[in-house]
UniProtKB/TrEMBL annotation:
GO cellular component: nucleus
Pfam families linked to this entry: TruD
Name assigned to this protein: TRUD domain-containing protein
GO molecular function: pseudouridine synthase activity; RNA binding
UniProt KW keywords: Isomerase, tRNA processing
Residues of the TRUD domain: 373-593
Gene Ontology biological process: pseudouridine synthesis; tRNA processing
Gene3D superfamilies, per the entry: TruD, catalytic domain
Family the entry assigns: Belongs to the pseudouridine synthase TruD family.
Reactions catalysed according to its record: a uridine in tRNA = a pseudouridine in tRNA
PROSITE patterns: TRUD (PS50984)
InterPro entries (UniProt xref): PsdUridine_synth_cat_dom_sf, PsdUridine_synth_TruD, PsdUridine_synth_TruD_insert, TruD_catalytic
Amino acid sequence: MSDSPNNFPPAKKQKLTTNDGAIGVDGDAHEVILSTGNGFPTESEHCVKQPVISTESTVELISTVAEHENTTQNSTLTCKEKQNDGLQLRTDDIQDQSNKIHLGTNVSELDVGITEFLCNHPGISAIIKQRYSDFIVHEVSLTGETIHLTSTELPSEEPEDKVTNDETVSVLDREVQEQLTELATSEDKTRSVEIPAGEDKQMRQNIHKAVKTAFPMFETQTDVRDGQKVIVVNYKKSGGKDSRQSSCPEWPANKSKLPYCRFVLYKENKDTMDVISLMAKFLKVKEGLFQYAGTKDRRAKTSQEITAYKIHPKKLSGLNNVLRNIKLGNFRYVDKPLKLGELKGNHFTIVLRNTVGSDEDLQRGLNSLKSKGFINYFGMQRFGTTSVPTYEIGRALLKGEWADAIDLILCPRTSNGSSERFRHVWSQTKDPLQTLEATDSRCSIERSLLRALQKSPKNFQGAIQALPRNTRMMYVHSYQSLVWNTMVSKRIQTYGLQPVEGDIVLPSHSGQDLRDEEPKKVQPVVLNESNLSLYSIYDIVLPLPGHDIVYPANEVKTWYEMYLSKDGFDINNLQRKNKDYSLPGAYRTMVVRPADLEWRTFLYDDYTIPLALSDLDRLENISEPKSCPGGKLCAVRLSFTLPSSCYATMALREVLKTDTSPSHQITLNVT
């Protein structure tokens, strides 16, 4: 029992960290440096690091990272031992993660289930994202359009719903039209116009329709004045379904049926949510007025679509003059907001710098990626970039261990950043007020948590609920991702790259957009002897655990049961009273092939010279990069498209054959 007044668990010493940053959800844009280091895996590592190209089981590394670094020979099991006991040992290792935090070690790919490759070609050495300009991301819409910023001009204010139907307009005589026009231009919004309506019901309906068509800012109602029926025309009142109208009184009256401004957001080295927060701050509106299909990561140049409810394009355009490394454009009026997950994928342009290796190995690796693809692992940024993995927090939330989750969010990391001061105050005092006073404005998540604790020190669940829902979902999705990664590795180790009876696929009409944030309302097809030959490894899906999904009808389901049981979960009882933690589950394709993969090599001397153009570069007519004859360094520029929720770093990992965790890679960048 802790001595602190709030009964929090004792603070845990944290493992070393390499860099801080926001957590990517959809796509890759965090600094990751890849290299083959001193060569390919040693013989004792081959069962883990080499590809699985048959149905034979392979060894899974089960030691902790510290053990692996000290004695590789002792950290592996024979294939027979692994086949018999690998999963149990693997889950024991994950269960001991809190001890690893205490020991100060770092999370590696092995810790999050990333162990396999598709093919056994040699890797090459390279640096990913030496500069954030080496990583360019364009959102791909549901219609397949690659989103680009091509203009910063304001949209036309011409009416979208011009009254062109003479029959409709003729319902209103000239005098009534003049009265309505005068009312529309009047500053007195309390005035009204009365239109004689008569006893003909159809005529009254035509008048109502004509007024609303020609003057959409008005509302109409039938009334009786001096014994005669009239139609009373007033300005629409604020409140009810259109209560947000007053937030933008300058919204064009002829755009009342198009209450959203849709635009392209171009950003450099900033998180999507940070940009939305900045825009809301400068415009003095709530962040909830903005909607997006997916977040794009910080260390990149990215283009994506955003919708804003009744925020005039002129106001949005004005932000181009005050916000650095941000441009808004391609404005247009639309009738519906974007929703999370409404994207087909992302198009990546990535520069691999300081590549070392033979051209033959490079071509083999890239051609293999193009034709065979990669294992669709959740990338390292899914699990956080600080020394506390997000899946630890997610596991605590799913178990209802609210105090533990709070402590994991607030406890010290071992970086030297200025934000560490409040974490040490927390670890020493567990006092919300003292800790809050030590924070700065950048710690928005932690400040929300601490304010809630300050108001109600014993209400741990209430404090967690004070966090933005997207943040809470990020934590629990991280745990789901950990389970999925471990299961797909085990599936490939055991059965190889061929469909087997009991595997599941989704009906072809369900499409490829397998969002892990929302369940797919489809019934999977279970493979059997009669339909096995109809499918390939590219059709096979594995579930993210939940209460509303179908598990494979083979040994794989047992693995899920064992894994979840080790973490204290019952596979048949994953529903929770709180809907946020009652995850329905989803399906994710095991192996993915990138679309439109192309590459080009460059020679260069100066790593600060960009080798790929962004949308802003093209708007400013920057010339296409050229190779430097006689350059001492080599770079490879790749471009490809991935479905939503696929990670570009996992595609590159298949080519480069190395651990992509920042903690392992950061030491390899000596430039």
